[in-house]
Design a protein that fits this description.
3-stranded antiparallel beta sheet; 11-stranded mixed beta sheet; single chain; mainly beta
Amino acid sequence: MKQLIIFFLLITYFEATSQYDYGLEVDQHDAKIEGKLNLYNENNSVIIGNDAGIGEIPIVNNPTSENVYIGFSAGIEGIQASGNTFVGSNAGKSNVSNHNTFIGKNSGLNVSGQDSWDNTFVGRLSGSFLSAGQGNTYLGTFAGGSILSGSFNTILGYDSGPNNVGNINTLTGSYNVFIGSHAGEGIAPQEDFKLVIESDPNQQGYPLIYGEFDQNSLTINGSLHISELLQLTPQSQPTCDATSIGTIYLDPSENLFLCKSNGWKEISIEP
């Protein structure tokens, strides 16, 4: 009886392998795997999900390799892409470039530029409007706002980044840092080298901290408490106009001056 059962199993095995070209097929049944599961294809990629990585069909001279696509339609068009990790439905759906990491439903959805590499988007809809850019880091649901193109931006927080839904096709920017929920919503299109730190959506026109990296300037819209020391570097007399009233500077002779409406006035300090 034992020999008969073994013979039957062998016949079933050979019939199954002759009909299908799959390493493992499970049809409308649960599968339980104890131990290690090795997933392999000719391009050293891991692809899991309906329509995921369809573009990575092994063909002669196909440069696509070493991708991880997990989720419905993840990386569906990546026929010439390498070194990407996409997790979530439609993550990296249009991507054809290399070395991107998109995690979350619809993250990196529209990234399609040939040179759109080394982007990291984490969160549902993060970077979903970006079509081209390099070296961006977006963290948070809908992080990246409505930026259509731009490079080397760091955007952290829920819905952070410029957002101008009525004029979405003009939103571009590079070398910006936005931190906090809704941070950067008041930033105009085509802005570069900006720093915005804010978490109150009602204060976007006056974020707590605003800076311009290219101008080496920093604005704090609120009270500033310094518990230790404030050191001023001596410099020549700057401009004193309506926009700089309240400015204090230290001249090369170590005298303090305050900008008032009628010009610079020395602050008298007893020796």
